[in-house]
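REVIEWER CHECKLIST
Item 1: Sequence provided? yes
Item 2: Single chain? yes
Item 3: Sequence as submitted:
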Amino acid sequence: MPHSQDCSARSPSRLLAAVAILGTLAAAPALAQTPKTPATKAPATPGQSTTAPTQADPVVATVDGKPIHFSDVRAAINSLPPQAQTMSPQQLYPTVIEQLVDETALLQVARKANFDKDPAVQRAMETAADRALASAFLGKIVRPQITDEAVKAKYDQEYAGKPGETEVHARHILVNDEATAKKIIAELQKGGDFAALSKQYSKDPGASAQGGDLGFFKKSDMVPEFADAAFALKDKEISPVPVKSQFGWHVIQTLERRTTPPPSFEQVHDELRQQLVQAAIQKEVNDAVASVKVEKFNLDGSPVQATDKAAPPPAK
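Item 4: Structure as written out by the authors:
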């Protein structure tokens, strides 16, 4: 309760498969990854030798004459989440081809219906093209910066040679009002059993089932009011006054504390890498904005002033 946060087969619908692959590929975090080789090598395409391919980029399917090349399949596989890339070649390769066929067929039908001439669709296509260009540009600049050496250097800076983080082992009783919390503290001071009182009074069912025990936690794991009180108590000490948080009133007992070792490089590698990616992207965006002239206007056409509110006025 006091935590900062609350704790196969291909679809029979070809249309749903097409929409699914479009969504999957669009959601793939291209900037957060370096170019990958598929986890498993795809089987040879029909007419392609496994030892000496006759084409550098063979056609693997056509849709009304429009070719789908092996490079399209490879690009689609590389854009899939890592867990999807662990599928066997016998599953992954034909599935991706079928999904590319679905996508291509859907696009051709849409174009035959002149849907691409709709002004709203054209704006959406232009926006998508602009985002693809910006993403590709950022990727080309950022990827070379995110090396294993850079990740290791960040690990050394933040963790290596530093003591681990302190954790406390505590338990609590959570009630709705201060008067009840004070009554519980008085009973505990007279020798009352904490676990029994937790089961009797606490409105935190998960903890009360364990006698109020929350286990070990870091200060950042809990809301500030609770964390500050728990870490300020000595071992075996019960809070002399109730502690109020957004969840209610707490009676807290800190049982013991420990210092955990810093995480290993492998444990935080992906997190540190993502931090480097985000920092590099933000720097490039800031540099780009600084290199151009930016003007902002209110809805009435007047220039935005520093004191203006960011949000437009509510609709009437």
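Item 5: Key structural point noted by reviewer: The first strand starts at residue 59 and ends at 63.
Item 6: Recommendation: ____
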